[in-house]
């Protein structure tokens, strides 16, 4: 009462209404209540009580397990007995067949020797049997002897007399069989026939009689064993059912008593805890348990009194906390608005940047131009451009640059630099003079600590000469005949200092040569170990692979492999390749002139690589279909070509490159007025590609033909011609469609 008075003085809520019955339980059966109360008052821990219950349950399960093992063992004995009798009957029937077969084989052998022309009921194949009849007789005798020995071994001692008779009759049968064989081999067919009919055949009937008796005895034993099995099964089923029912009822009663012994105090404790949660700290727990539940009840009563004193302190703290939370909410709102403004600024910068980038690469006669741009999450300042000269149709300008800042300032500087370059390039012919003029303009207005690196080149399409100047940008790479060189030209970044001069250099590209322009987003990319991609790695890749889209695809795939799947891009990545494919006069390229086709295509429609990953055959199909769309192939021929390209690319990735992403598949599409050629190259050289073989389903099922080979056969039948070549490092499959002549449309 003292505790209650103190709680009420502290302003505690009035007590909640008591449950209708103790513990809130209304459905406890009357006969079980004394048992439940007895278990609750036992002075033992809950752990001991539960272990006792589990032990009783385990003993019940153990009894059921032992009984089940006895039943299973008994049933297994009966099943084994039935199986032995069935095997004995089957062997006896097989022996009966072998005795009859010996007599029949002997008759066929003698009959074929006695008559020169076989009667209508005997075919030529019967007299030329393979194996010969005498060999079949010997095989039947061996089989009979093996079965007789096995039956004698497995039969009970009571049948020793029967098997003694069988062995005696079989020995006589063997003697007369041997005599008939000797006469047969000596050419005395008539005497051999007499021995067969008078002795051998008669003795076979004796064997058949004995074996029929054995079969009859075994069948009778099987009938008796089956009846015994059914009787045992019924008895054991009844016993198992009774024991299972008793065990189940005992386990349910035990579980019910234990559960109620623990649930009743838990319900009371739960009731008081619910009252405390509603703010009523006057409630107390009263339980009769002498275990952990009694201890918990006493502790809960102490906690309830302590909470009443803490409640008032919490109310005061709550008021102060609400005030501070309100201040924090306002601060978070201001930060959210700031972040939204920055994100909007980044979206605007991104839109500005993309709006000023070329929508597509220019189509230049005798040249292949490809570009790749991948913006970073935080908008950077990379840009590239292609500049036309209306009064000089054989020239084109190439610009690659990078603004040092990020966000909207970088985007605006990039746009201004691009506009200045386009304007200055139309009035100034020298790349160095253009960069010098832009530097002066930018220096006056560029924001502090912002500068622009830029490389500007003018390409003479007819001669292949490139004149260029560099304002602190990454050096381009020139690839010629497998060799790579840096194109150097000195010059400060734009906008840093006034009065700068920019060195101008030139280089001439031969057919097949290429140049790679790039930004620092590629070489400065880091992997999970913080290792940088680096210039040496990039230079090595350029050295080993030709230019064009194939090189860009390779660099993108190598970057993905180097950085891993969870890479967060740090800077923009810009790649521009410029490859001279033909000399002046539109002469065929070296790649085209070395084509395996006799009507070699003279222009490249597409040249790209794909990582060897499942599903990339669909990308190959799409790229090839886009490349040949100007040829206006009939729909049916286009679908057949797409099927062949998909199958060949999948074969190259799976069998040639073993689905290794670091080994790309190269695809090249070439065309002339008469021929369309698609070359698919993998890294699986070392052995030749087998010639397509017409699949033979029966031969494949029989194992005489390889289970593979459908793909090459399908590819060859999808196109007009297919050629496969191999060297030490590569496989090349060339798919050919004839666009003119008699073969066109086949």
Number of distinct beta strands: 15
Silhouette: flat
Largest sheet: 5 strands, antiparallel
Q: Which class of secondary structure composition applies to the elements?
A: alpha+beta
For the record, the CATH architecture of the largest domain stands as 4-Layer Sandwich
What is the rounded Rg?
A: 48 Å
What is CATH's topology name of the largest domain?
Answer: Phosphatase 2c, domain 1
The count of domains is 3
- In whole angstroms, how far apart are the ends? 107 Å
Q: Helix coverage percent of residues?
A: 40-55%
Question: Residue ranges: pLDDT <50 for 5 or more in a row?
Answer: 1-25, 583-601, 699-703, 742-746
Q: What would the average pLDDT be, to the nearest integer?
A: 79
Q: Can you count the helices?
A: 18
Q: Strand arrangement, largest sheet?
A: 1-10-9-6-7
CATH superfamily of the largest domain: PPM-type phosphatase domain
Q: Report the β-strand fraction as a percent range.
A: 5-15%
- CATH C-level category of the largest domain: Alpha Beta
Notes on the protein architecture:
With 746 residues, the chain is α+β, with helices and mostly antiparallel strands. The chain has 3 domains: 181 residues, Up-down Bundle (Four Helix Bundle (Hemerythrin (Met), subunit A)), CATH 1.20.120; 229 residues, Phosphatase 2c, domain 1; 159 residues, Heat Shock Protein 90 (2-Layer Sandwich). The chain is 55% helix and 14% strand. The chain is built from 18 helices and 15 strands. The strands form 3 sheets. A 5-stranded antiparallel beta sheet has the order 1-10-9-6-7. It has a 5-stranded antiparallel beta sheet with strand order 2-3-4-5-8, covered by helices on one side. A 5-stranded antiparallel beta sheet has the order 11-12-13-15-14. The longest helix is centred in the N-terminal third of the chain and has 89 residues. The N and C termini lie far apart (107 Å).
